[in-house]
Amino acid sequence: MPDTLRQERNLLSKVFGLRTSIREQKHVYPKLLRDSKDHCRERDCVDIMTMSTLVDFCYSDETAINQGEFQLLANDLEGNGSTQTTKFPKESTIDLPPEYDICNTEVTRITLAEAAALEARTADQCQCQEWFVARSTRLTASNFHRIVRRKKEVNDAFLKSLFDPAPFFNKFTQYGKKSEAPALDRYLERNTRAHFHPCGFVVNPKFSFLGATPDGKVCEEDICGILEIKCPYNARGMSIEEACAASPDFHLVKVHGGGFQLKAMHRFNDQVQGQLMLTGADWCDLVTYTQKDLHIQRIYPDTKVHKSMLNKLSEFYKEHAIGYLKAKKA
């Protein structure tokens, strides 16, 4: 790369790579980050994949490229398919029953290529307006449990909570948001084979009325899973074992042999299985973080759960959501 290009001002430096592990070259990483800052002090951001070596630099005048778009550009730079596994959604192995085709409305309908582009554009999640728009006509994985387990009558108040939720911010959400970064750091320290990518809003074309936003993508070699981080406020000063003993509502349970696992009937299980169904990921690492402890459980797709959940969600959307959304638009 010519030195004159390196010295250009007001350019966005994009650092890409996914060749070999940088773990064996730890001295390279700080220098790489420092040099990129020197070359472009006014850059929007620099994305360095921490399990990789440098492949190329690419410059642009743009100043508003989000993290997800970095990944799509990285794919194009490499051209060898090594990062293609980070594209979500993958084609689903289950089908929407024909009687629910009506749920894939004109508003939500999307192609696989369009869905991958949407995921990339919304990688900034709640900092991105398109993320809110995409969610506004779809049932999202964080609400799947509320829908499939609901016993009460479905009313407008419940539908409003799904499609027009009031913003809220309290000590629980504040703690959870603040704790995500240290939780991710601890996870990557423990899982040294993994490299992390941000994840946007994922919509699967086969059931485009559903959506999910995992906390990230985690790749190990050529396999890409997803990440879901939980930082329970009430367990913040406890070990995982203490949290299990302190509250029957805690999402993990101690099992024979001394380990811990996610409760099958807990809302987080429906959320994680929903994310797996929509992304097509090979697995989800559920990370539970406290100030004293960290627990990682790798959860695999359960096709039986997916089919049951899909039927219930489809029935709900057909019977309640379509009419509500039409009335809201009128």
From TrEMBL:
Domain YqaJ viral recombinase residues, every copy: 130-281
Domain of life: Eukaryota
Gene3D superfamilies per record: 3.90.320.10
GO terms classed as biological process: DNA repair
Alphabetical list of CDD domains matching this protein: PDDEXK_lambda_exonuclease-like
Pfam families documented for this protein: YqaJ
PANTHER family tied to this protein: EXONUCLEASE, PHAGE-TYPE/RECB, C-TERMINAL DOMAIN-CONTAINING PROTEIN, YQAJ VIRAL RECOMBINASE DOMAIN-CONTAINING PROTEIN
Name this protein carries in UniProt: YqaJ viral recombinase domain-containing protein
Organism per entry: Capitella teleta
